[in-house]
């Protein structure tokens, strides 16, 4: 898993499509959905941990971008 697109593809495998319209909010909802999948045992740590790290990194980038504007 390398980027946000890969995380979206992981969620898509479970029929989860996230589009709210604001990238920061999309990332936050993806985090919630990933946690639910992991808590219910549908994805294991080897998929969950890289995905959540990518989402945290993207979230940080979006927050920095918003602060600059």
Task: Describe what you observe in this structure.
- This protein has 69 residues and is an all-alpha fold.
- It has a single domain, classed as YqgQ-like (Helix Hairpins, Orthogonal Bundle).
- The protein is 72% helix and 0% strand.
- It contains three helices and no strands.
- Pfam families: YqgQ-like.
- InterPro entries: YqgQ-like, YqgQ-like_sf.
Residue share in helix: over 70%
Domain count: the total is 1
Query: Topology as H/E string?
Result: HHH
Quick one: CATH class? Mainly Alpha
- Specify the CATH architecture: Orthogonal Bundle
| Class from helix and strand fractions | mainly alpha
CATH-assigned fold name: Helix Hairpins
Name given to the CATH homologous superfamily: YqgQ-like
Overall average pLDDT: 96
Q: In angstroms, what is the radius of gyration? A: 12 Å
The percentage of residues in β strands lies in: under 5%
Count the beta strands: 0
- What spatial form do the alpha-carbon principal axes imply? globular
The number of helical runs is: 3
InterPro entries: YqgQ-like, YqgQ-like_sf
Pfam families: YqgQ-like
In short:
Helix content is 72%, strand content 0%. With 69 residues, it is mostly helical.
Write the layout of secondary structure elements.
Blueprint: H1 4-12, H2 23-39, H3 45-68
Give descriptors for this structure.
69 residues; mainly alpha; Helix Hairpins; globular
